[in-house]
């Protein structure tokens, strides 16, 4: 049984912004470091009582969608917004993370966003 699974966006040597979907209906976002040992420091949590998608169900397929631009990511779970969160600059390396269990990640795809430099400008 998978206790939690998620993504890591590397933003420094042996560290990154991490998203962790727990099987009990909670999602945590924070910093993951992997120098001498693996350490996760939670900075934000969503779950029961929050107006957002959160957590995953063990044994059930789900879809993650991550959009990142200008130091901010928007994360979707099964096409429902989970959270937007600042990451600062990232290296472009994305990791997959499983805590206390096992998971299968498949159909992984990545592509560049083709947006104007100043997307806030009126047309």
State the gist of this model.
This protein is mainly beta and 123 residues long.
Protein described:
By secondary structure, the chain is mostly beta strands. It has one domain (4-99): Exo-inulinase, domain 1 (Jelly Rolls, Sandwich), CATH 2.60.120. The chain has no helices and eight strands. The protein has strands at 4-12, 15-22, 27-34, 38-46, 64-69, 72-77, 80-86, 94-99. The radius of gyration is 15 Å and the shape is globular.
Domains (count): 1
Question: Hey, roughly how much beta strand do the residues contain?
Answer: over 45%
What's the total number of strands?
A: 8
Low-confidence stretches: none
Summarize the amount of helix as a percent range. Answer: under 10%
Strand line-up across the major sheet: 4-3-2-1-8
Give me the Rg, rounded: 15 Å
CATH topology: Jelly Rolls
Coarse shape: globular
- Mean pLDDT level: 84
Q: Note the gap between the termini.
A: 50 Å
Subunit arrangement of the protein: single chain
What is the count of DSSP helices, taking H or I runs of 4+ residues?
0
CATH C-level category: Mainly Beta
CATH superfamily: Exo-inulinase, domain 1
Task: List SSEs in N-to-C order.
Answer: EEEEEEEE
Counting helices, strands and paired strands, the structural category is mainly beta
Can you tell me the CATH architecture?
Answer: Sandwich
Biggest β-sheet description: 5 strands, antiparallel
